Amino acid sequence: MLQQMRANALLIWIIVAITFVGGFVFADMSGLIGQGPVTTSTVVASVNGEDILYTNWVNISAQMAQQQEQSQGRGLTMDERSQIDDQAFNEMVNDILMKDEYARRGIRVTDQEIVDMARFNPPPQFQNMADLQTDGRFDPAKYQRFLASPSARQQGILASLENYYRTEIPRQKLYAQVAGDVYVSDARLWSIWKDSHDSATVSFVAIRPAPTKEDRDKVTDAEIRSYYDAHKKEFDRPGSAVLSVVSISRRATAADTAETLLKVRALREEIVKGAKFEDVASRESDDTVSANKGGDLGKAVRGTFVKEFNDALFSLPVGTISQPIKTEFGYHVARVDRRVADTVYAHHVLKLVRQGDSNAVRTDRRADSLAKAAAGSLTPKAFDDAARAMNLLVSQVQATEGQPASYLGRTIPSASAWAFGGTQVGETSDLFDDETGYFLVRLDSITKGGVPELDAVKEEIRGTLARQKAIDAAIPVATEIAKAAAGSSLENAVKPSGRPVSTEGPFARSTPVAAFGFASQATGAAFSLPIGAISQPLKTEDAVFIMRVDKRVMADSAKWAAQKTVQRMQVQNSLRDQKVRLYLDGLRKAAKIDDRRAEINALIRRQSTTTT
User: Fold this and answer.
1) 496 is in which domain, residue-wise?
2) pLDDT surpasses 50 at 271
């Protein structure tokens, strides 16, 4: 079997979901190789002295992007592509770190281990293949026959499995060494159960002092410096940018909706009169993923789809053609092929509600005019002149590095990735678009991410320290209320001041309580004070509380015991995952990583701008 795996290694690319293929196709087609700063030997990063080539990174990222495009049935925005670039880079860094660990720990993988895993522990992708299931469950016998089939050999699946397990088996061994000793005692399980099942109901008085100018003036420069030095990591922030944005809407009108409905009715009539459903779906459906399979939606359980479509699939007689079904995506025509309990197998044709041809032509012409006037310009005035000439509203938005920018409640496709991809201040983007409209963006300013200098956050720190001083000043007032309440009641104690007595609960220890903040002293007191007792002042980040516990209900030990086995498995798996993540984070923090992506991308960006 192992010889068969190796004999078919050249066909490994067929199973893209399992492994990535090397090569320089993307880099070559994009014109990056041999131009300016980037060559086949350009190093994008080094990890503990081992280089990562720019072209290898680009290739792997391109493969991952292709996978996502195929699964989504559409092209990716620059924001999505930027996220994939980061994911590919991080995986390459982690691969180097993991290989170093395998060598250090003496972790090896044998041929027999690979054969056994391939035969009896198929990857998740295989377990979910419809052809390898019987009655909705993975069928090991079908999988064994599949491995022995000529198809598996011809398609290079055996070679793909070998490569997959040569990576996966040492990973599993490492994880077992790192977290295999995790065990949770009954006492710990009971404590975790109590944290989420003990409950308390409390009454409280909150004093939330607002810092005054006097409080701010009391904060010294020395205190600010000391706070900054002690909390530097808390100020580590992503980059930010200010963008000017104009848009041209592509939203459909009521007339466009009516026109789409007429089209869907005509498609239904075509099918009813004898056209093959699959042929119509392949030709007409806007759901490109299912259209490639003749409209086949595969196996779906109840609740998989939006309510309107879900309700239709579970009420439509098997084999019949539905009337048009309206959802948030558009209009569907569906056929239910089979239904078993809460599982349905169906086909559909989807037509999105878009602008009609005449409206779309007018919108596209306006967008072309906007692009011609300002897209790609390095002169800031060109953007303003184009917006004024076309009577377009200019809005300014704040963009955060690594997150899509939004404008009037809508995401601006690609804008954030473009702004942080080496763009010059004052430069105007190419025309971006999605289903809702066209967007043109200008970069007005940009701030690099990281820990800012003290001067940049000085007033923010001053406000934090002033709030702390104001809260400290409120402690004596809270102490007097607590004393008065202990001698009478909380309600009587606050009558002179007119402060309200509020209630919260029931809530558990692990339940975030908005009034108290997360994991605060006030939450702890709710589960430690005797019922009816008045607390001492309880200080949190923005308030001081005086509390009385009105009711507490303890967890049911019998219910806990009945589910203890399942809980132990879940908790131990979670703790193992956490331990592995912390271990990997530690490897990365300890590694010497020289990341040159931003520098290289900025050089490429400047080169392309100069060329055009």
Assistant:
1) 199-235+454-553
2) yes
